[in-house]
Amino acid sequence: MALFLASFAVQAQTPAAVKAAARAAKVSTDLLPVIENNGINTQAPFPGGLVRENLFMTEGNSIAISAVANSEQEGQALLQSLQALGLTKGRVLKQQVTGYLPIDKLDDLKNVSVLRSARPSYKPIHNVGSVTSQGDTSMRSHIARTTYDVNGAGVKVGVLSDSYDRLGGAASGVASGDLPMNVEVLKEFSGDGGIDEGRAMIELIHDVAPGSPQAFYTAFEGQLDFAAGIRALAAAGCKIITDDVSYFAEPFFQDGPIAQAVDDVVSNSGVTYFSSAGNSARQSYQSAYRGTTPPASPTYYVGAHNFWGGDKFQSLTIGAGRSITIAFQWDDPFFSVSGGSGARTDMDLLVYFNGTFLSQFSSQAESIGGDPVEIIGLRNTGSSALTIELVLAKYEDVTTGSTPDPTLVKWVNFGNDVPTEYDTKSSTVVGHSNATRTIAVGAAPFYNTPAYNNALSTATIEPFSSAGGTPILFSTNGTRLGAPVVRQKPEITSVDGTNTTFFISDTNRDTDAFPNFFGTSAAAPHAAGVAALMKQKAPGISPAAILTALENTALDMDDPSTPGFDAGFDFGTGYGFIQADKAIQAILPANPTFAITGVTTISCSPVPGNPNKRSLTFMPKYSVLNGQPITFSVASETLPTTAPGPYTIEIYIDNPTITLKATQQGTSGEARFIYNWLAVCGTTPPTPDPEPTNFVITDVTTISCNPTPGDPNRRSLTFNPQYSGTNGQPITFSIVNEKLPTTAPGPYTIGVYTDRPTITLKATQQGTSGEASFVYNWLAVCGTTPPAPTPEPTNFTITGVTTISCSPTPGEPNKRSLTFDPQYSGINGQPVTFSVVSEKLPTTAPGPYTLGVYIDNPTITLKATQQGTSGEASFVYNWLAVCGSSSARFGAGSEEANGLNVVMLGNPVEDGRVSVMVRGAASQPVNMILTDTRGKVIGSHQIEQAGREEQHVFEVSRQPTSLLLLKVSTPTESKTIKVLKVQ
């Protein structure tokens, strides 16, 4: 049956009555009418044609729900209880359970003792726009394939979207060569509404990397299954994964289950992960909460957000035939993500028309102890525009008691762009696209790239491409961070609007009749295809190195929402439009030379009946491998072969050296190596090997069990298996459901959870039959209490300098009195001897140090040695870049002063974090703006009422080496600090 949103006669019910009824039913207020009406649409028509969008996911007579248990320990019990009611496709993660529940069983939820509450699992959104790929030419991947002889072979790419072959066109795509053969479909979408966008994404990847095998997993079965799909694709061997799906209810200010899954596979499986940044442009309102009086109707509200000048109503004009989908959140942690106390405040999203409250279109879920999110979807089915008003209202009653005000409110419109009053045009990259290890991808249409428009030197961003800058305020365990973390999103821009065989419709921007695929949904798979080419060329390359190469070689682009051209990173385009050939060139050695660097001698056995002859088994070692076939031979002993080693030959001891030869496809020249095998083996015949024994895993050496920051139930486990029955041949090792087979020697490191105390190790040995297995109770060895991480030994170095003051010398305008303090790492507590080359003799006196220096000597070299540590530390200190050439005093002093006092905690900045402390502004508003020397804003922070001491951190890890300017101001004072960002 088709499920429509069922309204209820809230006109006759107060918000308190609605919330009480939902609380008793253990469901959200938007699931309550589904129970009351058994899923039948009772929505009355509204004058002008305004209707509420159906955001529910259904499958037959079942509805997708997201339920939470009373505690994390009861999550599995909740799954079993819901399955007993008929829940299908159930998934559980900690306290959260998702799946499809029969609609007629929703009323039974109130009797499930371990259930805290349930809400709809809202529909996800495709990041698709309004309509052989031109992206191949735009990104120069066609040049990359020819120049570097790559096509993605051996690099498996995983795709997450709605469906792959619900429409039945995959076989035709394979036959025409537009799809790869044997796409591995791990899970297909079986619900309502699949349009095979995943197949269109796979077509685009196949255009860029035609040799890459591909796999698919639907992302349309809820957030928990999406997260499971990410891990499943990684377990299936995908080294590149991309998605184009967003969920409205993903946390804005905290990493939810999908974001955590991305971080997991990137960190522990070496996956490079691309996600569409989104198609919401800057359709977002974000502000510090300013409380004002509540609206007169409905009652029970104790306050509302003041948009400006006391106005609590924000108008939005929805054009004829257009729709909005608004997700509203505030700065509380999600109970479904981190457990604990959940939301402390109950905010509601109220809708008004001409000042009249429209309960049937509002979102009034009870949030205390749950998730701080309200979602509405509205469509104007009329023939003229409609203007509505939004109120962000704070709710309290006798059940909630007094609750704190939120400090930050934000909504994102995932629907059509509509005129908005008090529009802050804030960030819209949210959820897993904003995860630390996700590469968020913006979109530029092919016809606005240099390859298709000769008038352009760089690409132009799509107007709908989402902008970054959303702050992360909470850890995954729900703890508020000491300072907001603003991640640089999107990282890159790729191409969209390109041809497919079926998706969606043709554009007049090209001359052919093929349908064109627009949106960041198309940009992300294009970028994934480029990464597959890079991974083939450099198989050992890390996800971080792939991202760095893409960023450093991209065509710099402009964010049109900011004044002037944005040099370097910006929140609209990232680091710019990617170039495949330049990215591959960047990851290659400057002068690549394929060589035989040595030999591993495996065995030297006597040949029966001939004491002067040996059976020699060995393995060459190579440098600068490019993944292409190697042809190997031994001069005068073996013919050329492309078979991989080890190699075995019979040889006489009067021939003590042999010449090894090798060539590698794609590399010029022949590598040679003189192998003195007899010096290794000796002239005395070795004792014959004993009869082979069974190959087994006998034990495990546990090396370390370190806690995972922000997740007390997770450990980073490093260990080494111990074997018996080894024969010197390669061993293939794996961990069931945790690590794919590998021939790399240990130690091995994986992330494990304490609720899974044992893991099963597997190993096979070449030349030995059977598989060895060992159950490793790692938790019994490590214990349940997280051990303190063992600090890694560090060399003694000068890591940076704290500049304390730069004062002019009276009568000498070109001279400064410079006071500074070196920063060290690797300190062992022994005396440090410090000097400045040509300026200061060695001294063991501790800093700070003061020198007289001239501005025509902008850099000085600092030297230091530490007793008990070998070697001398050296650091080139560009003091003039920090202090500036003017005669003004440098404003980063650490001394307290009357009035506004700004202290830099480390300057120059080397760790990518600009830390600033502000004193002397108590009870005043404080504004901080970090810019480059051109005035481009890199970060900002506002404090409405400062305390005695305020500290804030700006993230600048991806900012190039440069001089930055930090302006800190109050209503009466302003100070500008020069900050040097170094590598």
Automatic annotation (TrEMBL):
UniProt KW keywords: Hydrolase, Protease, Serine protease
Domain Peptidase S8/S53: 415-576
GO biological processes: proteolysis
SUPFAM superfamilies assigned to the protein according to its UniProt record, in alphabetical order: Subtilisin-like (SSF52743)
Pfam families named in the record: Peptidase_S8
Cited InterPro entries: Glr3161-like_dom, Peptidase_S8/S53_dom, Peptidase_S8/S53_dom_sf, Peptidase_S8_Ser-AS, Peptidase_S8_subtilisin-like, Peptidase_S8_subtilisin-rel
UniProt entry tagged with the keyword Protease: yes
GO cellular component: cytosol
GO MF assignments: serine-type endopeptidase activity; tripeptidyl-peptidase activity
Family: Belongs to the peptidase S8 family.
Protein name (database record): Peptidase S8/S53 domain-containing protein
Naturally occurring in which organism (per UniProt): Persicitalea jodogahamensis
